[in-house]
Fold:
Amino acid sequence: MSVKIQTLSGYFHEYQKSVIEPETFWDRIAETFHWKKRWNKTVEWNFEEPSIKWFLDGKLNITENMLDRYLFTAGDRTAIIWEPNEPDEPSRHISYRELYHMVCQFSHVLKDLGVGKGDRVIIYMPMVPEAAIAMMACARIGAVHSVVFAGFSSQALADRINDCSAKLVLTSDGNFRGAKKIGVKEVVDEALKQCVSVEKVVVYRRTGQDIKMVKDRDLWWHDAIKGKPTEIEAEEMDSEDMLYILYTSGSTGKPKGVVHTIGGYMVYTHFSFINVFQYNKGDIYWCSADIGWVTGHSYIVYGPLLAGATTVMFEGIPTYPHAGRFWEVIDKYKVNQFYTAPTAIRALEAFGQDPLLPFDLRSLKVLGTVGEPINEEAWHWYHDHVGKNKCPIVDTWWQTETGGILISPIASITPTKPSYATMPLPGIQPIIVDNEGNVLRGNSVEGNLCMKYPWPGMFRTTYGDHKRMHDTYFSQFPGLYFTGDGVKRDEDGYYRILGRVDDVINVSGHRMGTAEVENAINEHPRVVESAVVGYPHEIKGQGIYAFVIADMTDRTVANLTNEIKITVNQIIGPIAKPDKVQIVPGLPKTRSGKIMRRILRKIASGDYDNFGDTSTLLDPGVVEKIIETAKEG
Ligand code: 7RM
Structure:
């Protein structure tokens, strides 16, 4: 048994141990896994380069700890329950034994297609069990997966394929999402026009729609697995070998490939999963995220399957065919732990309580939230109407880079407080610094959230560009990992995440770099310059507001703003489409040419006065003009 916290004093006790003797603390947890060879050293690190290594020289295969481990003791236990988009379509229950065989079989497919240890495989698939199977098959043979959210455009997909020189793409014909049927393979075809590294494409049939199969390049999933053996030796991997790359947005440039390695990620996702959710054997756990995001990686696939859990995978959306769909699924499978995002909670809250009435939701024990700060109103609605006042809410703060949850209540153990992520998990050492890097000690302080000690699940590099990792996260406050979030530690020592302090905006829990959206807008031939900011949005948390200088010849404002939205949609995908585009005569720039985003953020949020010090503005008149058109709507 791993370390599982049972009481509040137990939490404080483990926390103390983890800070005083981190190596002993993590050794004890790591020892509960199956290693082909034990590690020689627990951790070796410095946050200057940075260089982070855990469980050095340990040899293992993560899938042996997810599949083989449960084969004989719990082979018949359900590993994955898959709920399709359409409630009438049959669901799928996949046992640990079946999952093991499916993963082994697909591992053979990968090998036979020439994929080997260290090769990169892109997974651009809808929410079907085969996507998780593909991830594990990669891990089984030592290949590195990079899942790309199936809502991203062909350009975004091509950028990711090229950044990691992937050899293989796994995809599907199409994707069912609500009332829509979306082409997926056609996006891959378009992307691959720009990618030379890809040799083969394997296509999982989901919608049955017509697609084009390219000769000698494309093959069907069901043909590929035919006759393949259902056993395969798990490749012996080093703790610090790459497990996966996941692209995420930052404040500058193109998305970065966040790299996670095997040993530490395994230990941390398992540890955080069983503790935060207080998962017990036999529980049914459901995380409604998409596997294209880190939450899907750590808390649909890796964490739960490492724990021998039953994990629900949902293909659909919260509002199809009706706004009670989530509650219907919870009752259908008697879900015990449910994990979703504030944006989904707010969207469902808008439908009132009627959609909840037909469902009893009595199976629920724990409710989780992740992705963005949860407002108090949404917290209470979730707590009162979904949890019926008897389920603790775990407000879990973490990031793609952290690999797993760092600050969160432990369900039923940590007293909760609406909108607070509460306290760090054992092994996590947060520190708050002001903008000059001074450490803010004690309680009732507010500043930049950093970490001063590594934890096993943290990322190791940004793919192909280690300097970028240093510059982005380890240079602003030397010796610390800077998260990019602002935080308050209140009078009780509880942490409340205040949101990003950099140019990253959080739209429905999805991270977007404002620079990334600006670059896409600037691709429109009429656009001269643009500035993008976030503004408060009732459902999405933040909406995207674009201020654009453009050549208006033969265009109406309506035409042009619409074209700009379409451009972003094509270049990045629907999640990046600006909610508002305002054509402006100029941008508020300082004499040194820097855009004063602070002013634009105020205007975007509908606040038109008190801009503070604007003395450095080159042309203060431009602000008045922007406000004038903003008011016109
Ligand atoms: C897991 C995930 C990370 C950013 C992070 C925060 C925000 C995430 C919470 C939160 C307040 C939370 N990974 N964030 N969880 N803010 N409370 N419980 O979301 O890489 O996509 O985003 O999301 O700003 O830095 S992510």
About this structure: The first strand starts at residue 41 and ends at 46. The chain has a mean pLDDT of 96.
